[in-house]
Amino acid sequence: DVKVTQSSRYLVKRTGEKVFLECVQDMDHENMFWYRQDPGLGLRLIYFSYDVKMKEKGDIPEGYSVSREKKERFSLILESASTNQTSMYLCASSLPGKTYEQYFGPGTRLTVT
Amino acid sequence: KQEVTQIPAALSVPEGENLVLNCSFTDSAIYNLQWFRQDPGKGLTSLLLIQSSQREQTSGRLNASLDKSSGRSTLYIAASQPGDSATYLCAVQGSGSRLTFGEGTQLTVNP
Fold this sequence. Notes:
The structure holds 2 protein chains of 2 kinds.
Chain A: E1 4-6, E2 10-13, E3 19-25, E4 31-38, E5 42-51, E6 54-57, E7 65-70, E8 73-78, E9 87-94, E10 103-104, E11 108-112
Parallel strand pairs in A: 2-11
Antiparallel strand pairs in A: 1-3, 3-8, 4-5, 4-9, 5-6, 7-8, 9-10, 9-11
Chain B: E1 4-7, E2 10-14, E3 19-25, E4 32-38, E5 44-51, E6 56-59, E7 62-67, E8 72-77, E9 86-93, E10 99-101, E11 105-110
């Protein structure tokens, strides 16, 4: 059974903290994605990675960075969390050339106070 | 830039009704369109994928259609059940390696 896991289901952080969201997939997928989901806005792509140490900005990269040191792990970093980064964060992975076949993790609901 | 819009934002129906969810997109140059289901607090599960050359796809009580030239897709759910209650999202894939999602329709089917 294919699986994408995210390190936390719920996370509460304070403004200004550095926050790491971790995503791990066990399908040997090259592509990995980070989205945020907000009511009325759907899913918006933050960053994606098409190989180890490779990354590309999505539609809303401001305030975020990413790290992909190993194929199975893709981390989203909030250098200095702000209240407007309170959201649901979803990670996904896919094979190259099969962006339409993304497997999603359960999500991390981050609250920044 | 591709934009995807879903109507309605929320829908509440009694069990047994047939219903239609709508999705529209601004750029007709797509490779495919996909409908997803999301249960509360969970990730997305793909329901139906329609390639740009196709007009519709069916899976059980679900039927999705695609009219690429007009930038529209519909998801038809027959004989709705309480277990169909979820948020339904459509997404299109354009020329890049990314999906563009709509805002979603939150469906509630009442017993």
